[in-house]
Amino acid sequence: MEIKAKNVFVTGSTRGIGLGIAHEFARCGANVVLNGRSEISEEVLNQFSDYDGKIIGISGDISQEADAKRMVKEAISEFGGLDVLVNNAGITNDKLVLKMTEADFEQVLKINLTGTFNMTQAVLKTMTKARQGAIINISSVVGLTGNVGQANYAASKAGLIGFSKSVAREVAARGVRVNVIAPGFIASDMTDAIPDKMKDIILGQIPMKRIGKPKEVAQVAVFLAEQEYLTGQIIAIDGGMTMI
Ligand code: NAD
Prior knowledge:
By secondary structure, the chain is of the alpha/beta class. Helices cover 46% and strands 14% of the residues.
């Protein structure tokens, strides 16, 4: 798929990896929907003023089915269609499993997994009708390996892999591809919050001995959107952490 002039929706793109992905698609000439739970600030929108494509903000909560349907409808009426959906929005709420409440568990599943389901379902009719589309789901290496204190997060990110492979099989013959990116440790607000001592331990587990950049994940997202014979795959971009 040639990215120039294609219509791309990136969930959770007000900062971090999602913002990086939105920039990379915009740099390639796409029209991009920026999304977050609250209104997209002028400061974020202004960062995109030099690109050729149309950049709009549509706020809403992906974990609410009605919001997901409304946001996709708005994007389609603004752009005339949607070619790429990047399900990037996600949260953590870390606790040891013995201390984790049902609410802690369900909150993370509801956004990371149900939110991805809501957005995917909302775009599929348009994409299958157009016989073209790419859906890219942002999982995590934690979904492949598990992690202490992240049973809820790991369950949601592992769930995304089974979800993506199932949908990939359902829609492959209709020209829609579904792939997964599993980032390792990437610089963002999410990882800034990790204490320095913990960061040193994590760096010790990365063969390349450095944290990744949002742009590096974004380049994989563009690659997955472009490659027309790739579906149901997982790409771990993690400096060699997992080597799956
Ligand atoms: P971040 O916290 O910096 O940004 C998350 C974005 O998602 C924000 O824009 C936020 O507004 C949005 N968001 C959260 N809940 C939402 C909802 N219900 N509806 C709409 N938007 C919502 O996070 P990040 O580090 O940039 O991570 C982005 C994605 O990458 C997440 O899915 C995360 O799990 C995954 N990931 C991150 C890392 C990392 O090291 N940073 C590693 C692996 C995977």
